[in-house]
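dumping these here so i dont lose them again. two proteins, back to back, each one seq then structure tokens. dont judge the mess
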Amino acid sequence: MAVSPTADLYLRRGAERRLRGGHLWVYSNEVDSSRTPLGEFAAGDLVVVRDAAGGLLGSAYMEPHSLICGRLYAPGQARPFDRQLIQERLATALAGRERVFPGPWYRLVYGDSDTLPGIVVDRFGDYLVAQCNNVGVERYREELVAALVATLQPEGILLRGDSRQRRDQGLAADCEVVHGAVPAEVELEENGVRFLAPVFEGQKTGWFYDHRMSRARLAAWVRGGSVLDVYSYIGGWGVQAAACGATEVLCLDSSAQALAGVEVNARLNGLQDRVATVHGSAAETLSALRGEGRAFDVVILDPPAFIQRKKDLKKGVAAYRRINELGLKLLRPAGLLVSASCSMHLSRGDLMGAMQQAAVRAGCQLRVVEQGAQGPDHPIHPAIPETEYLKAVFARKL
């Protein structure tokens, strides 16, 4: 059912510049509240956004109680947020993914970058895992599901509703199969290596496609060596390192359930003799390994976001410095440190600065030899720097 914009939303004079430059967010302090009071809108209401003179800027859905009170889904157009629009967006996104990736395993929808704000969809072959990450877009889940079914004819669609963004907005943290049937674990292939992802109980959608390109760069560095994969989750880095020829891989994580997934995925690829696991907190376990005299040819650090909010930057940089220092102390001379960050508020320069401080404290030198970023299924919107979040730095220890 088509739902058309029911009202106009007028901005203050001059507030339209960012939207005309391609941005998709309307901030509450940009709205001419005397002309269009935010209190008149409910979450998910569709509006035509206009400048102070009445010029058309696009169509948006509302989140009137948030700082970002409107999200454009149709820049420069007045049109419904319906199945037809979503299918158009899906077709464009799908064409881009199919051009780059040989198989049906990728992030199909990446929110604003695919002009479907608030929506994430990961594809696992015949199965899809979707997230509606704010209260405004939650109203259109039926249109989303219908568009996904029409576009891809999947065997099943799982709607994960347990993201941090949803919790912050007081939305239900549920997990529901909304089409067909979805098994507890779904298979995927990345860089020629097979994995089973726990889509109901795993982190986010069950898998992290974003580091795919960086993980592919491991082959030349790990062949014939020993690898420590810290914050391993279910083995995205570590199992691929073993598949690329590492003779010994140790996966470290604080989740016993995640480490059970490492073991499953190692066996799935016939690599169980080369992949071991250790359960514990990263800092304590790294210190213990050093006390045991352990050393590795490659150390991979891919932690969760240490910086959730901009005000946490200083504390977060210190956390990155500390974990890199511990990693460097376990790295053999001429070994490779892979240091990653998914903290949007941490710049690549800040990450390198934390690595350099760690090297000084560890009594060594570093030279950056390669760098990685999010893959083409996580496209960056050039007008929205927040869509760029992932960094990976490959550095040799001298």
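---- next one ----
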Amino acid sequence: MNFVEKYLRFELAKEMLQTPNIARNFRLDDVSRALQAIQASGKLFLTGEGSSRIFPAKNAIYTALTSGLDLQIVTEGGRQAAEYDLADYVVFAASNSGSTKEAISLLDQLTKAGHKNLFGLTAREETTLASYANETFVLKCGWEQAVAATKSVAEQALFYQELVAQLQGESILSQLPALGDAIEKALTIEIDPEVTKAIAGAGTIYFAGRNDGVGEELALKTNEITRKKSDFLEGTYAVHGIEEVMDADDVVVVINPFEAELEKLKETLVDGVGLTIVTISTAESIFPGIVIPDAGSLQNYVDLAAGWNILIEVGISLGIDLDKAERARKVGNEFTTD
């Protein structure tokens, strides 16, 4: 994706291209109350719906586990979370609109049960969600015009990751200027036209890789941006039976593949099914794809941006209006007082 008119006529592309500066300029407001509550509890529950949960929450879990943080972090959507005993958890509910029904219903239930550690994360001031939380934090990125959430997803994830870092007495802020540069590179790197063509012609676009929120979030964005069917194949799911229903015109996008799995992927999916594998990686692989900067512990943001880049190219090649979905809504299930 380049800074040219065919991209910038879409709000979605503009919002993606705002993400590097959002990363560079990110700062965490006073979260002392939340930090104290989490430190006392040792348990953190992250809820929300769709893009407000998938990448922000799973990236936080991945970060905590890879850094060895002694903190239990769990994530689930609001309806299922309502079946859990969350009495000992500090609960964060993310909703850009601040009016997502499932999140509000959960906080209402917990409030009535006497829960005192409820926090909100929104992109708007004075929301309904805020009236149900004990404290609410507002993103700096502003409200998005496109249906598909992008820049807000990155800022929500940065919020949680910095929160996790501060629980360890650390911070990611010094790394953010370099992260912004890496995101910008991933967003603007040229995509091989043959890669775009293969993905645009796919019956189903699969994403494979770590369960860190990147592939799963890109699978959702595929539906919204390209209007194509998609799926996320966590771990080694891509070579454990799903090949039975794959077709030669399908594409599997593997994000930062494990070197030890490359030959098995080729044998099972390329040689066996005849489909195309594309990689998003910090190094060349045996498959076509794009090579992106290495951002260390913040790599997931760069991977996500590279995926956005690919999807924008595919959507434009298919002649899709990237800002207006046929059926999807900006607020999936809005809370009303009726």
